[in-house]
Every structure is written in C-alpha cells, then in structure tokens.
Amino acid sequence: MMRIPQKIPQISTFCQVWVSSVVRRGPSACWSFPPGTRYSVTTSKQWSIAKFAEEEELKKNRGNVHFQEIHKAIKGRELIKDVLEQKREILLERKNVLVQDLRDRRTKVRERMEEVIEKENIMTIPNLLCVMRGVLAPYLGYVIIQEDFTFAIGLLVAAGISDLLDGFIARNWPSQMSKAGSFLDPMADKLLMGSLVISLSYCSLLPIWLTATILFRDVFLIGAGFIIRYKSLPPPKTLSRYFDVTHATAQLAPTFISKVNTVVQLVAVATSLGAPVWDYVDHPMLHGLWYVTGATTVAAAVSYLMAKDTYKIFRKRPGN
C-alpha cells in the first residue's frame, strides 16, 4: 500500500491560499509571503490586515504631507498679502505727503504771484499831493485856533487846489493812477475836514451839532474802510501786509450824494472861516448853509449803507 507524505495537507493549504490571493489581489500576490512563513489561512489574514494598515498609514502620511503643503501655501499667500498691504500703506502715506507738499507749494506760489500782481507804484504825484494835504490839516487847525483867519484861508485855498490837481492828474495820466489813491484821497479829505470843523467849533464859528455830525460820518467811513481792507486781504493776514499800502486789495467808489456833500462841506467851512474876516458872523444865510450841510452829511452816510457798489474787491479769497 502506498504511503502519502505528511506534508501533502500543508501543500494543499498553501495552494488554496495562493489561489485565493491571486483572485483577490492579482498575480503579484503569489510572491508576497515573506520567506520562512508557515502558510495557513490565519497567516494570510494577518498578513492582509498588516498590509492594509500599512497602506492606510501610507495614505495618511501622504495626506499629512499634502495638508502641510497646502498650509505652507496658505501661509505664503497670507505673508505676501501682508507685505503687499504694508507696501500699499507706505505708498499711500508717501502719496498723501507728496500731495500735501504740492498743495503747500501751490499755495505759496499763488500768494507770491498775487503779491507781485497786486504790488503797485504808490509814488505818484496825486498820492504825494494827498499826503501833503493830510499833513497840512493839523497845521491848518492850529492856525485857526490862533485866530489867524486870513492865513488860514490861504492854506485852505492851497489845500483845495491840491485836491483838484491830484484828481485831474490821475484822470488824464493813467500811469499816475493807483488803487491806493482811492483810499489816500478821501482819507486826506477827512483829516482836513476834521481839523477844520474842530478848530472852527473851538472858535465858535461853527455849531457843535454840525461838527459832531461831520465827525461821526467821517469816523463811520474810516471804520468801514478798515473793515473792507480786512475782508479783502488774502491770507496770511498779518499787520505788515494789512498796513502795506502797495498791496492793493480793494477800491472805493464814492456815491453821488457823497460827492455833493463834500462840496457842500467845503463851501460851508470856507464860508464860516471867512465870516470873521468879512464880518458876517451869525448871518441867517450862514445858518441856512449849516442846515443844508448837516442834511447832506446824513444823506451821504445813508447812501453808503444802501448802495452795493461803493467798493470793489479785486479778487476773492482763496477757498471762497
């Protein structure tokens, strides 16, 4: 009788496992058993679990590597974004600084150009005559107080001639016309008239009420002139620029009733000054002239309040 070797059952088990592995995992599985392994169903299952765990671990490692790469990419993008944001803020700050610097330079250039444009020659003959008339005013008042009425009449005539002459020269020679003259001429007239009425009232040759009316009107006009100067002066508003007569910013335009009042005042003052010389003090006609002078003085003050074209500002302030 033939005896069957004892290893045949082991070989049969091996074949079954081998066939099962080929069917499940492909031809390469037949060489997957490590050398020296006892081939059994239990061994095959353990090996399959170990292989599956190894593959899962490999997948997990690959996933971790991929996640790390994505994380690095995100961090890189955030870093680049932060750098770009910082650069943008720096550029915006530099832009603001440059824009502000350009605005400051433009403002300075504009002010210098305006100063150059508005500067004018004030050393003209009409302006010199106005200054001389203004300087003559207090001396004329002193002569009247000393009751030297004849000499005072001569000085008043000279002042009147200078007033007519400066207007004639300014109108006929454009090079002698200046915007500062529109302030100097009425200012000299106000000084002359103020000195005359105060000194005549001191000598009882002019009523106090008329003197007060004329002085009130002149003070009102002088104050209005200072206000107009302040309003028309462009920034920076400093004392040196405010009192710089070569920096013309506005021009006065007297009303018609104001011109009539100036003539009436001169006539009334000259007539009152000549009263003690030609002996008609307290004459009724003289009193009538005083009332007419007072009425035209009040009307002239009201006309400056009602009229809108009594002064002209040469340009608007920046920003208006």
UniProtKB/TrEMBL annotation:
One of its GO terms (biological process) is cardiolipin biosynthetic process. It is an enzyme of class 2 (transferase). One of its GO terms (cellular component) is mitochondrial inner membrane. Belongs to the CDP-alcohol phosphatidyltransferase class-I family. It comes from the Eukaryota. This is cardiolipin synthase (CMP-forming). The keyword rRNA processing does not apply.
